[in-house]
Amino acid sequence: MLIAGDVDGTKTNLAIFPADNEPATPVDRMILIEPSILSADLLRLGEQAKAAEDAKADGLQIDVMDGQFAPNITFGPDLVRALRNVVKLKLDVHLMINEPERMLIPFADAGADRIIIHEESCTHFYRVLQSIKALKIEAGVAVNPGTPLEAIQEVLDLVDLVQVMTVSPGFGGQRFITSQLDKVKRLQQTLTEHHVKIPIAVDGGIHLDTAQLAVAAGATVLVAGSSIFNNTGSVAQNMTALRASITK
User: Fold this and answer.
1) Residues with catalytic annotation?
2) Which of 17, 23, 56, 163 could be 201's S-S partner, Cβ–Cβ 3.0 to 4.6 Å?
3) Each residue of 66-88: b (16+ CB within 10 Å) or e?
4) pTM score of the predicted model
């Protein structure tokens, strides 16, 4: 597979052309980048969120953990509300909590544009996704490294995004699990076969070396934390470098 692209300063447009033994039809995809505030400097969160917006990020991912479903405790609706007052970006709330249905309305009221849940975290998976859609916001589903794609097969017609976890939920800065690239490829094939047109996000360990691998596998949304928010470069510099890495 050969990848060509250009960076227009806003979004990266990639045309993925097949190798000689692949189908002859090219697939045009727009690649979105969502910085994850889990790796941001919390003392400067508003400033860094605005810097991400100024650098043409396509959204912000807010990782919500309860210390039970995921081994960390992070953010609540008040933080989403605060960010909503600072940026106009899509706020993507990733609920890594048990019984997420309890928190749908508070996060929607706070300004979430999309809520992502895990199949393992709720008893009535389909119903919770329906409840999210009833709030007039987008619904997403995340798939953990050890979770088979079959677990979400019956909800693909309901969700607006599937997010493949390339790390285990809990902490930023983890190593990218390369075995999940095959899952991304299989997911893309499944969506194509079922004529479902929704984005595939990849979350975890996304940096200059792994972003291109994720895109080549079929990802159209890159959730990146420590490669955007760090001490080695500004948010703008890091966003530019990450976009450039997926055009090589």
Assistant:
1) 63, 203
2) 163
3) beebbeeebbebebbbebeeebe
4) 0.87
